From TrEMBL:
<dbReference type="InterPro" id="IPR011010">
    <property type="entry name" value="DNA_brk_join_enz"/>
</dbReference>
<dbReference type="InterPro" id="IPR050090">
    <property type="entry name" value="Tyrosine_recombinase_XerCD"/>
</dbReference>
<dbReference type="GO" id="GO:0015074">
    <property type="term" value="P:DNA integration"/>
</dbReference>
<dbReference type="InterPro" id="IPR010998">
    <property type="entry name" value="Integrase_recombinase_N"/>
</dbReference>
<dbReference type="InterPro" id="IPR035386">
    <property type="entry name" value="Arm-DNA-bind_5"/>
</dbReference>
<dbReference type="Pfam" id="PF13102">
    <property type="entry name" value="Phage_int_SAM_5"/>
</dbReference>
<dbReference type="Pfam" id="PF17293">
    <property type="entry name" value="Arm-DNA-bind_5"/>
</dbReference>
<dbReference type="GO" id="GO:0006310">
    <property type="term" value="P:DNA recombination"/>
</dbReference>
<feature type="domain" description="Tyr recombinase">
    <location>
        <begin position="218"/>
        <end position="408"/>
    </location>
</feature>
<dbReference type="InterPro" id="IPR044068">
    <property type="entry name" value="CB"/>
</dbReference>
<dbReference type="GO" id="GO:0003677">
    <property type="term" value="F:DNA binding"/>
</dbReference>
<keyword id="KW-0238">DNA-binding</keyword>
<protein>
    <recommendedName>
        <fullName>Integrase</fullName>
    </recommendedName>
</protein>
<dbReference type="Pfam" id="PF00589">
    <property type="entry name" value="Phage_integrase"/>
</dbReference>
<dbReference type="InterPro" id="IPR002104">
    <property type="entry name" value="Integrase_catalytic"/>
</dbReference>
<keyword id="KW-0229">DNA integration</keyword>
<keyword id="KW-0233">DNA recombination</keyword>
């Protein structure tokens, strides 16, 4: 073992009543580092030696016996928790040792822990997704099972439980896509608990011959070249509509750039006729960081000149402020996305374009129109900063049928 656990008297601070704090000492031999955790017990040096060291092999009664048993229980539990950690580290030990014994099987405890960690890692959007899933599980557990979510354990969630949850969601008018998102999040929490050796793999309800998460074919929304031209030339009724249209086409012209990346774009990223950035969504998911280079055009330069900060420092656009924290950034970007979607829909309706158009249409429109113009799948994959070619191919699930139809209609054009 690379660690040793013991109960020690911390003599660094003598209290006014002549006692010292009793602490749990965990020493990592590999790191040559120890940490001491308070047990909220104070003893004199004589009491510590008598009760814990017990050099005379005395058998105690009453309060001394209770204290001896309590300390032995603490030391034993600390060793048990440490043994459960595959690769020992202090953070994992602290999580396991200081929680309640029932927490290891608690679904809510694990969700709350993941949410807290995601916020700490500045992954606010992911944390929100876990919150939505937990709220949904809470609603189902309390309405259908009359069980408070605090009492919901991993062992309760079986194949039958998940099928009932699926029915419950469908009855509420939720789509299979939403069900898939929530159950995938729940599965991720199960996997973390198993990885931490807190629950057995035997109760895992997902996989072969178990509950299968619904697989839905994502319909990628995109405008064709005629629709793009119509939207670009569409008259706007006010400055808000014009601004939203400009940002929509800025994304389209910048290889389908995500709104978060647009918001995080800094003047220091711009050099001569181009700017470079790392895609925020995938930055933490791979060890190799791929920089994306976007060449400026007359149009994209005009958007920067029109809406960019006049002092030309910090973030290019006034979507977020560099002094704000990540949670504020997340909320402001979300609100700006809603603002764009609201106005771009108004323009679309007024010009007989798809009513469900959103900011994300710009990314898929860039991809499908690049393919129509003859760009290779490899080029598009690199432009979109996808992890591999299969991710890019998923973008064109519906495009292939459309392309086949166009080909069939032109095959006899000799």
């Amino acid at each position: 073992m690379i660690y040793t656990i013991s109960i020690v008297l911390d003599k660094r601070r003598l209290k006014s009543n002549g006692t010292y704090p009793l602490k749990l000492r965990v020493f990592n031999r590999q790191l040559k580092k120890d940490k001491r955790y308070s047990l909220d017990i104070d003893l004199s040096e004589k009491e510590y030696t008598e009760i814990w060291k017990n050099p005379d092999g005395l058998k105690f009664r009453g309060a001394k016996k209770e204290l001896e048993l309590k300390l032995k229980g603490i030391e034993a539990r600390a060793n048990d928790e440490a043994k459960q950690i595959t690769v020992f580290d202090f953070e994992q030990f602290e999580i396991k040792f200081f929680r309640k014994s029932s927490d290891k099987n608690s679904v809510k405890y694990y969700f709350d822990t993941v949410i807290k960690n995601k916020i700490k890692e500045n992954k606010i959007g992911t944390a929100e997704s876990y919150k939505y899933t937990l709220n949904s599980l809470k609603e189902f557990s309390e309405i259908e099972n009359n069980l408070n979510v605090d009492k919901l354990t991993f062992s309760i969630i079986t194949y039958s439980w998940l099928k009932e949850y699926e029915k419950f969601m469908l009855a509420k008018g939720k789509s299979y896509t939403t069900i898939a998102i929530y159950t995938r999040t729940l599965r991720a929490v199960f996997n973390i608990a198993i990885e931490n050796n807190d629950i057995s793999n035997d109760i895992y309800p997902f996989g072969k011959n178990k509950y299968k998460i619904p697989r839905t074919k994502k319909v990628k929304k995109a405008l064709n070249s005629v629709q793009l031209k119509k939207l670009f030339n569409a008259e706007t009724l006010n400055d808000n509509e014009q601004k939203c249209k400009d940002f929509w086409f800025f994304s389209f012209a910048c290889n389908g750039m995500n709104l978060k990346d647009i918001a995080l774009l800094k003047y220091s990223d711009i050099k001569d006729d181009r700017f470079r950035y790392y895609r925020a969504k995938t930055f933490d998911k791979s060890a190799e960081k791929s920089v994306i280079t976007i060449y400026l055009t007359d149009f994209t330069s005009s958007v920067i000149n029109k809406y960019g900060n006049k002092n030309k420092s910090g973030f290019v656009f006034n979507i977020i402020d560099i002094k704000e924290d990540d949670e504020t950034h997340y909320k402001k970007i979300k609100n700006f996305n809603r603002y764009i979607n609201d106005h771009i829909k108004r323009i679309a309706i007024a010009n007989d374009l798809p009513k469900d158009i959103s900011f994300y249409y710009a990314r898929h429109s860039f991809a499908t129109n690049s393919l129509r113009k003859g760009a290779s799948m490899e080029f598009i994959s690199e432009a979109l900063n996808h992890s591999d070619l299969n991710v890019t191919k998923n973008y064109f699930a519906g495009f292939e049928d459309e392309a086949k139809k166009e080909f069939a209609n032109t095959i006899m054009d000799f």
